[in-house]
Amino acid sequence: MLEFLKRKKIKIEKEKMPQHIAIIMDGNGRWAKKRGLPRSAGHRFGAQKLKEIVLFADEIGLKYLTVYAFSTENWKRPKDEVENLMNLLREFFDTEIENLIKKTQIRIKVIGDISKLDKDIQERIISAEGRTKDKRGLCVVIALNYGGRQEIINAVKNLALDIKNGKIDIEDVDEELFKKYLYTYDIPDPDLLIRPSGEMRVSNFLLWQISYTEFWFSNVLWPDFKKEHLLKAIEDYQKRDRRFGGVK
Ligand code: IPE
Ligand code: IPE
Ligand code: MG
């Protein structure tokens, strides 16, 4: 690892490591197109890349890695692409996640409205979460049928119910209490958000959680994303001056 950093001329300070990195895994389709391959091939390579980056993130001691895998808007894609993505997801849980569960201390958590996914996929998710809930390694948060606005609406509805039932007093509603209603109630906000593929937008990802997150964009397409990109993003992050609205 140290050799690798030296070779790539990347300087990382252990004391300034982000604890939570979020990634919008974008660019699979364009990666495939460039090679004259079907979009599905891009998704397949993208899934392999995810496995590689998860293992590396665990190796470097990251605490949380949240990845955007399927958005609430991705249902708009052609039916066969959606089906292909769902099948890939099944395969990913059956092979890669099984392997991670056997061989590592990684914890799996899924965020998003999974009730809209096929039953067998929901079962895979619940099983992986249940079997890893007490593990203490990297927490991998997979956003599936996730939309930031949907998450906030869902939180508002549940909060409104608790107010209606007299469980919560409206005067007690503040940011800390609201957070408890989000899918990420038990996860700190991301320190760093990485978006490859050249797009410079958030695409409905973690809207509440990224209020003070540092952004890192790159033209590299997700299937071409490498460990050194992650390290470069961390290096750049460590040079940022996070003021959170204050002065220094
Ligand atoms: C990201 O790659 C994967 C998903 C959104 C599921 P894309 O499929 O969006 O790839 P591009 O943006 O078309 O290149
Ligand atoms: C964001 O990528 C969603 C995921 C990576 C899962 P999209 O490709 O769907 O986003 P847009 O359409 O370019 O904003
Ligand atoms: Mg895209």
TrEMBL record:
Catalytic residues in the record: 26, 74
GO terms, biological process: polyprenol biosynthetic process
Positions that bind Mg(2+): 26, 214
Note on how the cofactor is bound: Binds 2 magnesium ions per subunit.
Keywords attached to this entry: Magnesium, Metal-binding, Transferase
Gene3D superfamilies recorded: Decaprenyl diphosphate synthase-like (3.40.1180.10)
Cofactor: Mg(2+)
Top EC class, one word: transferase
Pfam families on file: Prenyltransf (PF01255)
InterPro entries, sorted: UPP_synth-like, UPP_synth-like_CS, UPP_synth-like_sf
SUPFAM superfamilies assigned: Undecaprenyl diphosphate synthase
GO MF assignments: ditrans,polycis-polyprenyl diphosphate synthase [(2E,6E)-farnesyl diphosphate specific] activity; magnesium ion binding
Residue sites binding substrate per the record: 27-31, 39, 43, 71-73, 75, 77, 195, 201-203
E.C. number(s) listed in UniProt: 2.5.1.-
Similarity comment: family membership: Belongs to the UPP synthase family.
Quaternary context: Homodimer.
Entry function: Catalyzes the condensation of isopentenyl diphosphate (IPP) with allylic pyrophosphates generating different type of terpenoids.
Name of the protein in its database record: Isoprenyl transferase
